[in-house]
Amino acid sequence: MIADRKDDHVRFAAEQQRHLGGYNQFDDVSFVHHALAGIDRSDVSLATRFGGIEWQVPLYINAMTGGSAKTGAVNRDLAIAARETGVPIATGSMSAYFADESVAGTFSVMRRENPDGFIMANVNANASVEKARRAIGLLRADALQIHLNSIQETVMPEGDRSFSSWGPQVEKIAAGVDVPVIVKEVGFGLSRETVLRLQEMGVRAADVAGRGGTNFARIENDRRDHADYSYLNGWGQSAPACLLDAQGAGIPVLASGGVRNPLDVARGLALGAAAAGVSGQFLKTVLDGGVPALISQISAWLDQLEALMTALGAPTPADLTRCDVLIHGDLRAFCADRGIE
Ligand code: FNR
Fold first, then answer.
1. Of 242, 216, 228, whose CA–CA distance to 93 is shortest?
2. CA 161 and chain centroid, separation
3. Are 206 and 185 in contact (CB under 8 A)?
4. What does the alpha-carbon distance between residue 219 and residue 260 come to, in Å, rounded to a whole number?
5. Please, are residues 298 and 87 in contact by the beta-carbon 8 Å criterion?
6. Closest residue by Cα to residue 276 from 309, 249, 250, 233
7. Residue 185 and residue 19: Cα distance in Å, rounded?
8. Which of 156, 246, 259, 300 has the fewest Cβ atoms surrounding its Cβ within 10 A?
9. By the 8 A CB rule, do 184 and 214 touch?
């Protein structure tokens, strides 16, 4: 049952990538062009540091899958691409492993293929501290992601209907594991209010995982016989909206949800993110073109991000926050409504 769901998610998410419209709210963010701002490529470093974590690059493969034979093979391919390009990577939710230990290999394959890489385990906010520790142990994980996905659960016929324990449980997990905890959404975004609560709970970073890319309301609607919740297909806030909303919240933020190209990565970093995460688009690449296609895509993105930082005059990812950006369209209206200066 869980294995079928994991296969469905991969299939529907890859299909969705083929039909994504061109625009998303990253397009409402533009850099002001300063023709004399450029620096030398040799002075640019992609290394990033946040919440006690250090990465060589500000780009990571975000949580997706595991729990079935097919998705184990996807995890193997993603892990090889991460190893070859040096990007951090997360597994998908490890609930399937807690339900049936025989699928452990569909997750641990990531560590086997990528012995020295930065790997994040992933659990839901109902997981006990003991389960969170098991997930970390199976992968020898460097960090733990906890996902918050109340809208996905709501639309999922077999989904959770009780959410009140999530906050206290996140706090318990953050206090009870010995790796940094990153809390993420799954494509509906994290509001300022949520990010502030996470900061109080001892969470190391908040991954906004906003609207505009993979859409789990749509995926779960497509899995239902009757798309009863199709009116939720536009729910949530985009990643740029979340990043602007969370400014000054006192906790590192990560940009994900709808990141389509190296410019979106630079836009996310300019809005304050320490790194940008990609799921759906990298999934489509690896399913269509295999490991070589994903390695070449990630390598090109890193090369082009460095090139953009050179032209923008930003020697480090954090320096991108000093670049002048303009906010327009719906994103500007969001800022006005939320009182964001
Ligand atoms: C996901 N995502 C996800 N997130 C999570 O924390 N645990 C999970 O198990 C999954 N599962 C999953 C499966 C598939 C097939 C996809 C494509 C995505 C959500 C993911 O990490 C991310 O937050 C969203 O996909 C938004 O980013 P993109 O896809 O727009 O880059």
1. 216
2. 24
3. no
4. 19
5. yes
6. 309
7. 22
8. 300
9. no
Q: What is the pLDDT of residues 103-144, one digit of tens each?
A: 999 999 999 999 999 999 999 999 999 999 999 999 999 999
Give the span between the Cα atoms of 93 and 74, in whole angstroms: 14
Q: Band of the pLDDT at 60, cuts 50, 70, 90?
A: very high
Tokens for 42, please give them: 């040799």
Kindly list the distances between the CA atom of residue 208 and the CA atoms of 184, 188, 235, in Å, as whole numbers in the listed order: 6, 8, 14
Pocket of ligand 1 (CB under 6 A): 9-10, 13, 62-65, 92-93, 122, 145, 147, 184, 186-187, 209, 213-214, 256-259, 278-281, 283
Tell me how far the alpha carbon of residue 107 lies from the centroid of ligand 1, in angstroms: 15
CA-wise closest residue to 120 among 189, 171, 184, 170: 184
Decide if 45 contacts 315 (C-beta within 8 A).
Answer: yes
From the centroid of its chain, how far is CA 76?
A: 19
Tell which residue, 154, 172, 245, has the closest CA to residue 206.
245
Helix (H) or strand (E) holding 281: helix 280-312
Are the beta carbons of 186 and 143 closer than 8 angstroms?
no
Distance of CA 44 from the midpoint of ligand 1 (Å): 30
- Alpha-carbon distance values, 74 to 67, 278, 305 (Å): 11, 15, 26
- Interface confidence, given as ipTM, is 1.00
Burial category of 157 from C-beta neighbours within 10 Å (exposed 0-12, middle 13-18, buried 19 and up) = exposed
Reduce the DSSP state of residue 121 to 3 states and report it: strand
Asked whether 158 and 127 are in contact (CB, 8 A), the reply is: no
Cα angle, residue 183 at apex, residues 181 and 185 outer, rounded to 5° = 160
Quick: pLDDT tens for 168-187: 999 999 999 999 999 999 99
Fill in the DSSP letter of residue 62: P
Token pair of 49, please? 């540091």
Pick from 4, 12, 62 the residue to mutate for probing ligand 1's pocket: most ligand atoms within 8 Å of its CB: 62
